[in-house]
Every structure is written in C-alpha cells, then in structure tokens.
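About this split. The held-out portion is used to measure sequence recovery: a designer receives only the structure tokens and must propose an amino acid at every position. Recovery is the fraction of positions where the proposal matches the reference. Here is one held-out target exactly as it appears in the evaluation file.
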C-alpha cells in the first residue's frame, strides 16, 4: 500500500569556490539563492522575480564550534528528487513530489563541515543541515556533540503581514501543562508586534504578501531533535528558529540537542503561493519516510466522546454505555473513554465494557496522562505512559482486553527528550496494535507518514474551549475558518468534534449556547481533517435534530483521497472540497457577520444535482438540492456563523 520511490536522476558535482549558488523549482518560478559572504551563510527566496524572503541567516551553534561564521564554501551538488507515494491519514491519498535539490558544503579552519540542503518544488522550499568533522583525530570526536541553537532565520520584506499563534511560556495558565500549542492566531498583524507571551510563535506560521502567502513550518522531527518555533521579530533579521525554553518539561531535560556526528537535522519548510497552494500542500509528508511497519491494519473512523459536553462526571459505566450505544446507532467505529476511567469505572470492569462495545460493533479508545512528573495535571491514569516498563505492562493489558487505541494527554513541551517520548509511545503502541491520538501536545511534524499507528493531535485551541467559556465559543467560527490555511494545512488536527447540542451542557438548557449553526458544525466535519474524526454528539441529539443531519454524519468519511481549496480567506470564510473514492464532499463555513454570497467553481461536479444542506434566513437547518451548471458553477449563500454542505 505504501509505496515510496526516491529517485536521484541527476547528480552533478560542481567543485570550486563559488560564493553564490541558486536552485530553481522544476517550473523555474521559485528560486533560492544561497550566498557565502565574509564567512557567513545566507539564503533568500524569490517567486517570479519578487522577493519572498530577503537575505536570511543559516548556521548552527554547536559544542564542536560555531558553525554560523568562519565558513568557506567548498562544494555544491545538485540533484533532482522525486517521491511518488500513497498515504491514508492526511488530506490526500497520493502525492507526487518533484524538486530540485542543492547541497552546499562549507568548512571552517577546524575542518568542521556544515552542509545545508535545499529542496525546491514548484510550491515549497525546504532546507536542513548536516554536520560532520573531517578526519577526526579520535573516534570520540564524533560523540557528545550538542547543538545549542540555530541562526536559521526568515527575513520577510517590509509590508509582509502575519497570521501567527503565540508560543506559550512554560508554566502559565493551568497545571503547568503549557506549552501545548493551545493558543489563538491573530490575523493580519504587523511583523514588529511583540508575541503575547514573549516566547515567539509556534508552527505553522503564516505570512501574507498581497496575493501571495507563505507558510513556515517544520517536518521530520523525531527524538533525534527538539521541536523548534520562531522567535519574535527583529528588524533587519526577521524571525529566527528558537529552541525550547529550559523551563519546559517542568525544567527537566536539556533545552539543547544531543547527537553523534555525522548528524542531519529535520526539515524547515516554506510553502509559497496563493491560498490554494497552502491548503493543498503535502510538503510535511513529501520530505519524510515511514519509520516502521504497521503491526496491523489500522482502521480510520469516527468516535463519540462524552467528555466534551458531559465532562469528567460522565466517565462512569452507565454514561459510557449511552455513548457506546450512540456510536453504534450512528454507525461510528469508536467511542473515546476519557480521563478518570480507572477510578470512576475501574480497571477491573474495563474488559466487560470493551466486550459490551464490541457487541454493538464499536471499539474503544482510552485516555491516559503522559505523566510522569512534568506538570500538575491531576487526571488519571498517570504513570502508565512515561517509562518503557509501564508502557509494556499497560499496552499488553490493553491489547488483551481488545482496546484499539489510546489518547495520551498533557505533554511537557518540545525538548528532545519529550519528542523522544512521543516516538517511544508510538513505537511501543504499534507492537500492541494500538493507534495513538495526542492531546495537550506539540504539533505533529510529518508523523502521519512517519509512524503508521499515529492518528492525530490536538495542538490547537480546541473544542473544549467552546465548552469552557462563552468568549471561546464566540470565536469558534473564526478558529475553524483559520485552521484549514495553517494548523490543519501542515498536519492532521483533532479539533474534538462536530457539536449539535444548542447549549454546552448535559441538560441542553443551562450554560452558554453554541454560537454556530448546525450546518456549520456538519460542514466542519469536512473542513477539519483527522483520520479518526470526533463527532461530539450527545444521546439527546438523536431525537432533537433533523434526521438529515444525523444521516449526513452517518455517511461522512474520515479519510480523503484528494482535497481542493474552492474559496476562502483565513479567519473569514472557507470552502473546501474533499474526495473519498469517487464521491465529493463540499463543506463551507462563514465567520463573517454578514451572509456570504459565493459562486463556487466545482468543475468536478459540473452538470450534477447535489444534496444541499444550508441554513435558512433564520439560521435553521434545511435540506434541499442545488444544480451545478455545465461550467461547474454553483451559487450559494452562507449564513453568518453558518455553513453549507454539498454532497453527491
Ligand atoms: Ca486540551
């Protein structure tokens, strides 16, 4: 199923003392210029002759030496790189990646070697470093190397505006569980504005240059490196790659990277083009390879989740039976049993709960804390996922009772040892046929392709906040009109569900209301991408909402063969078309205060009459039909905080 071919078609070595080299995308439009001046290495990016990134710094600060200066360019090598492969758990089931590559080799007077490799496809620039020592005097010279940080910068021209999400300072807010990528994007801000927590910005970082957009992120990060982010903006330098704060992970573990030479870093990615390019990009997957074989045929699907609206007290036997029955009635594959199941249901009753679910055609996913000692989150079970011995015992038990997946929550930050914990959990879980969802966590960086049992991550200010506070509920439409362009464009996202309760409460009368329409919520099942997708329904929804809403969710796939950007603007509105097999699903969301009239361009549906779910003028859900004309055009109106769904 997973076929990967990496072809090195052309390899030309050019030796010499070149001070400036360029590499162009296959279509010639995207150009990277790498320069070596006064011993320092820089790069710049241009699209169709216009500056995307001005001269930006490159280099690493390491324990063997400062590889940001005193460098002489000694060699360049050019290659053409192709990768044609299939995948199951992202926005597309197949990718054809073609790029031109240049590897620039530099040395300093201590014979230390820094290489930087750029790959330039028609839509993306990616780069990574390798470091080595030429002719080490002793074998030990290759060991115990520390990487203290990077000079790598992104120096945008004046006038660029930003769509950025702040990196949380460690220890702020609840239970010392930050940073966990649960902050809010600010649209269209100037570059010079300071970040909210004085800790820069988490990936992905989006920038606007008129009609051209740029998305900066990273991919291929394993336990061999830390997760990085962008610093605050500095005039003349731009944004610089920043390492984790030393207070992350409760202050334990190194903020630096430890490695053995020769060593290669993860990729930094720069996706450039119109919004369509960002939304449809597969660059996070194009640059990585699967790291182990799946031990079983992992099943995508949909899950019910009592915790979102009914909260902690619902994690008891009787309520979980209700949500298993709900999953069964909806034809969903999974029910997620959240925190406190070990005390409120009891370990000894879990085999019986799994057996009951199986009789209803439903598999269970169970919640765990990642702890450990690195935060104060009290939820249990704890200390089951933090050491190899504990994981082995727990996962063996999970497999024996028939649990199919785990959700692991409350990680400690982006230090190398924490990234290693994610990887260890995934690797161990695969031995026991368990899929893994992470919450309270870092951005996944190519993991859908790298780890076959990895499913999805939160790493977003997610649906739980719609429950927690009314201001967060007010922001839901904005958030879900932002993420298809940035957060969910580089990685799968467990937003935590289509919500159909009118009030965020068990009685569906008390507490604040949901601010979005039902059709908005249904459409978010298309616009949010996660291979195991949450529908945060409550049992009362079965009798309270129109049958066509439930029928849509029953037939909604969670995996996609193709994704097309149809229309939209970050934070304002979005219309996406996704294909599953030969069926197209079109979802649209409107975060604006006024109704939005659009003429959609849907050539793949030309001449067809589609089922059309739409809010009427009062915001009430209706089902009708819509004819797409012979040219593939369809006129729609999307209600404020409302949505549209078009299906064949
Ligand atoms: Ca969370």
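Reference sequence for scoring:
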């Amino acid at each position: 199923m997973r076929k990967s071919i990496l072809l090195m078609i052309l390899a030309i070595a050019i030796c010499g003392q070149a001070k400036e080299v360029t590499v162009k995308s296959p279509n010639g439009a995207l150009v990277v210029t790498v320069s070596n001046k006064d011993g320092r290495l820089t790069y710049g990016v241009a699209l169709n002759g216009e500056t995307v990134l001005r001269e930006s710094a490159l280099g690493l600060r390491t324990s063997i030496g400062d590889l940001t200066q005193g460098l002489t360019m000694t060699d360049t090598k050019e290659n053409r790189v192709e990768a044609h492969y299939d995948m199951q758990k992202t926005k597309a089931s197949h990718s054809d990646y073609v790029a031109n590559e240049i590897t620039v080799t530099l040395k300093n007077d201590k014979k230390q070697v820094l290489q930087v490799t750029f790959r330039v496809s028609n839509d993306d620039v990616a780069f990574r470093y390798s470091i080595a020592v030429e002719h080490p005097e002793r074998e030990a010279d290759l060991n115990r190397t520390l990487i203290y940080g990077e000079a790598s910068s992104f120096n945008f021209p004046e006038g660029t505006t930003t769509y950025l999400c702040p990196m949380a300072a460690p220890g702020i807010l609840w239970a010392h569980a930050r940073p966990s990528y649960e902050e809010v994007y600010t649209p269209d801000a100037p570059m010079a504005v300071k970040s909210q927590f004085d800790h820069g910005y988490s990936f992905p970082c989006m920038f606007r240059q008129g009609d051209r957009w740029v998305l900066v992120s990273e991919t291929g990060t394993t336990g061999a490196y830390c997760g990085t982010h962008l610093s605050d903006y500095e005039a003349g330098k731009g944004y610089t790659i920043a390492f984790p704060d030393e207070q992350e992970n409760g202050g334990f573990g190194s903020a630096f990277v430890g490695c053995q030479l020769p060593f290669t870093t993860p990729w930094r990615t720069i996706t450039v083009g119109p919004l369509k390019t960002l939304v449809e990009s597969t660059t996070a997957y194009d640059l990585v390879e699967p790291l182990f074989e799946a031990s079983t045929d992992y099943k995508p699907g949909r899950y019910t989740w009592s915790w979102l609206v009914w909260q902690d007290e619902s994690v008891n036997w009787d309520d979980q039976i209700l949500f298993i029955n709900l999953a069964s009635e909806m034809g969903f594959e999974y029910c997620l049993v959240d925190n406190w199941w070990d005390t409120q249901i009891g370990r000894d009753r879990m085999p019986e709960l799994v057996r009951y679910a199986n009789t209803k055609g439903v598999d269970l996913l169970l919640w765990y804390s990642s702890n450990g000692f690195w935060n104060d989150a009290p939820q249990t079970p704890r200390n089951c996922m933090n050491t190899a011995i504990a994981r082995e015992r727990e996962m063996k038990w999970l497999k024996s009772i028939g649990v199919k997946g785990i959700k692991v929550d409350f990680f400690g930050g982006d230090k190398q040892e924490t990234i290693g914990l994610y990887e260890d959990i995934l690797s161990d879980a695969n031995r026991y046929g368990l899929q893994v969802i992470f919450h309270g966590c870092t951005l996944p960086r190519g993991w859908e392709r790298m780890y076959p049992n990895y499913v999805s991550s939160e790493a977003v200010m997610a649906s739980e906040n719609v429950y927690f506070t009314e201001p967060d509920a007010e922001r839901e439409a904005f958030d879900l009109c932002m993420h298809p362009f940035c957060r969910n464009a580089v990685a799968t996202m467990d937003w935590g569900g289509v919500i159909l309760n009118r009030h965020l409460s068990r009685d569906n009368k008390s507490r604040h209301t949901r601010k979005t329409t039902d059709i908005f919520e249904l459409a978010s099942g298309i616009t949010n991408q996660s291979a195991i997708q949450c529908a945060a329904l409550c049992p009362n929804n079965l009798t309270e909402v129109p049958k066509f809403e439930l029928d849509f969710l029953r037939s909604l796939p969670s995996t996609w063969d193709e994704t097309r950007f149809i229309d939209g603007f970050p934070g304002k509105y979005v219309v996406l078309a996704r294909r599953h097999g030969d069926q197209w699903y079109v979802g649209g969301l409107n975060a604006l205060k006024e109704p939005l009239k659009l003429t959609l361009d849907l050539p793949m549906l030309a001449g067809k009459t589609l089922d059309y779910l739409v809010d009427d003028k009062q915001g009430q859900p209706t089902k009708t039909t819509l004819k797409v004309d012979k040219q593939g055009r369809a006129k729609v109106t999307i209600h404020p905080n409302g949505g549209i769904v078009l299906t064949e």
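Annotator remark: The domain at 2-286 is CATH 2.70.98.10 (Beta-galactosidase; Chain A, domain 5).
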